Amino acid sequence: MDQIKKSIPLLLAYVFGAAALIGLLFIPALAKILTSWVGFLAGIALLIGILNLTAVHSRRLAKGNVYSLVLLISLIAMITLGIADYFGWTEDGVATAFHYVQVPLEAAFASMMAFFLLFAGVRVIQKRRNWWGLLFIGFVIVFLLARTPLPGTAGEIYHDVSGVLSAIFVNAGMRGILIGVALGAIAVSIRVLMGLERPYEK
Amino acid sequence: MSRRCISCGSDLIIDGYVRCSNCRALTPLELEFCELCGSYISMANQFGHGDSTASEEWTNHREAAPPPLHQATSPEDEASSTLEERLGIDRRRTEARKKDIPADTDVPGWLLDVDAALKSGTTSDLPEPTVERREDWIREQGVALNGGTPEEESFESPAPEVETIEETESLDWIDALKGDLEPAEPKPAGEAETPRISKPTAAAAAAGAAAAGAKKRKSGTQPLESKDNLMGVPRQLAGTELPSWLSDQLQRPERSEEEVPEVEIELPEPVRSTIVVPVAPEPQEKPPAPSPVLDESFEKWLKDFSEESISPDWMVEADEQYEEAIAADILAKSAKTPGTMQEVQEGEVDSAELLGIEEVTELRGTLSGLKGTIQIAAAMSGVQTRRPRVEYSLSKQHQKQIALLEGIINAETVKRRPKTVVKVNRFPASLRVLLAVALLAIVIVPLLVPSSVDWISDLATLTISQPVQQFHDQIEQAAGQPVLVAFDYSPAMSGEMNAVAEALLGQLAANGSSVIITSQSASGFQLGQSIASETEDLSAFYLGYLPGEAVSLRSLARCMDESMDCQTIFGESIPPEIQELLGETNTVAVLASESGELQAWIEQVGAVLPDEVLLAAVTQTLGPLTAPYYTAGQLEGVLVGSPDLAAYEQEFLDVEGNSARNFTISTAAIWLIAAFLLIGVVYYAITGLRSGHSQ
Predict the structure, then answer these.
(1) ipTM rounded to 2 decimals
(2) Within an 8 Å CB–CB cutoff, is residue B625 touching chain A?
(3) Which of A154-163, B376-385, B488-497, B656-665 is least confident?
(4) CA dihedral B463, B466, B472, B474 (to 10 degrees)
(5) What share of chain A is helix, strand, coil (3-state, %, to 5)?
(6) Which of A9, B8, B332, B545 has the most beta carbons within 10 angstroms of its beta carbon?
């Protein structure tokens, strides 16, 4: 029975992976059908995720977790606003809550990143008092200042130098990273199609 | 007269002969034992011989019995050959045995019970013979045989319940055993005496069995009836007339030890010369009794329990063993050993002397009588001889290696110092507060006092980079055409990207381009929807949130292909006007804050529609990622963060937005951060160098 349980997902992965590959290369209509299936599967997965989230935080709420209570209240409130907007009971209720609650909160979290990055930079200087640490902080300062206007000729020279550094080192590094990521994705895809990797069994 | 076996159906009685159940040989019916194997033939005793009534009973019993396992041979075949030839019976032996076997024998009661049970079919009620029952049965035979008046009782079938024996009060059997265990009187010197440990004799065992027979059984079973004085053999089995050889064997245990005749054997001369009659040594004096420690009353009590008054069996036995061991030792020492064995003995003696162990004769325990046993206590407590020390020799090379290793170890120990734990000063709270206050100040003050940072914008003019120029150019070329704008940034980056989105949508609105707004995230679509609704004169169409990331973008790309008919995207139907606009769209502007979202647009839409113009407006964090794509030509134009926006607005747009002010504020903050980093580098470099020198 365990063998059957393991074999069915593998078989489905084989079949649909091969079908998607064939559709991508030779039969666009097949790829279209498969991608349309992904749509409603993604919607179902989202629904299941919401239900699971509700269940988890309900259990935590039973144990006395206050944050779970806040989450559940927020979830229920947004769902209620969405239903109300749909039926016309409210007007732009979801948008209002989004703009006046979610956007400021996320913006506040993002703004704190500036302080964290500054403290992290100072910590690097404090911990790693070697040439590599110095090199790192030096490049940070260079590229920080490169995005700002600097007065005079020195500023122009500085921008030229930073441009060259960016064009050579940054581009090369980014290209290397992107190519590596692409090759890794190809390798993982082949392994999934061959059944060597089974992420669906986890 | 014929009888058939219950199990196999073969004839049991054939013309005066009965078939033995053990060896299947035919024995005369009057015999009780098989001529071939000697096993008891119950057939004859149970039903007698020549008794028609018994034969009828047996026939009835046979009919009630289960069918035979196999077909028996027909009487006709058996009658074809003579009986003797078929059975191989020696007629002479049969005649000779007839005289020894009594004619009339009584059937034992237990056998009758078995038969009755078989007849009634209640064989399951018959108890299985157990060890205890067999022992009791044997013991009962001993009772009847030991000279006592055997009780005239028949052996009844044992009850199915477990038998329990009730011990009688008398312990005569113990006394009887004791009588046999009493040590023999010392023989006079010169007489040969075979040293041995006395064992309970057969007579003593019979006496014990007789006493055991006095025990009553709960179940009421009683010993077998017997007439003759035979041990263990019931009269029913043995009969009154036994062969002489058998009767002699059975009656032998009654003889006492004194009646055992001495067997004189003539030994050859060489052997006779080696045997020397040992002389019994003088009885060894027992060690003196220890001085009395306790008071007189205890001594008196102890005396009452001395050997003279009551001698426990184990003490008597121990004394006997002691005497016998001494005698054995004397015999061993006095006997002459062959020359070859003498050498071995001498070697043993030498080894014992070498080890310093005295050969002690074991008196007690399982090793009694053996010599050379090592006393454990003595071996452990005694001083053991030291083994000769083995001197190891080292070559010069080994010595050099040893010296080298020692030098390395010593050098390491010298270098190793107790590490002083350098307390790493945690980032002081005052410094953190200072940094936070400074950053807040550089952001809040310009908002309250805008002129405070005007001097920064006067320092240098904003320059337009080539990617920004091309971005503008592509937007201008798409005037009057539908443009697909993707809001793929999160609300966290809305502070930076909202200004870019507003500027872009403003320009598109000014150009008369219709805008199709979509997003890969629900929050992004909300942002786009809100910004588009605030933009004046903008013709906006909302495609909605596209779930599925790369897969949905792939579907969208097919819908944008004029050659393909697209009515649904990811299961969601597309309004007809949007379908038409998608077909006419040639420019796609992606507003992204994450690398994955930007890559998905480039790899999915850009790969399917290579002729489509793909523009990217990203945050400053994502700026380096766009460089390879721009260099490769996959992106036609790139707008990176607030600096490019400020330049873009300043150069191309007539709109006076907040981008310039935001840019100056961000510049001030960047300068402040850079200054803090520089100060930190200098400070910790100096302190690090100082600490390094001090160490």
Answers:
(1) 0.85
(2) yes
(3) B376-385
(4) 180
(5) 90, 0, 10
(6) B545
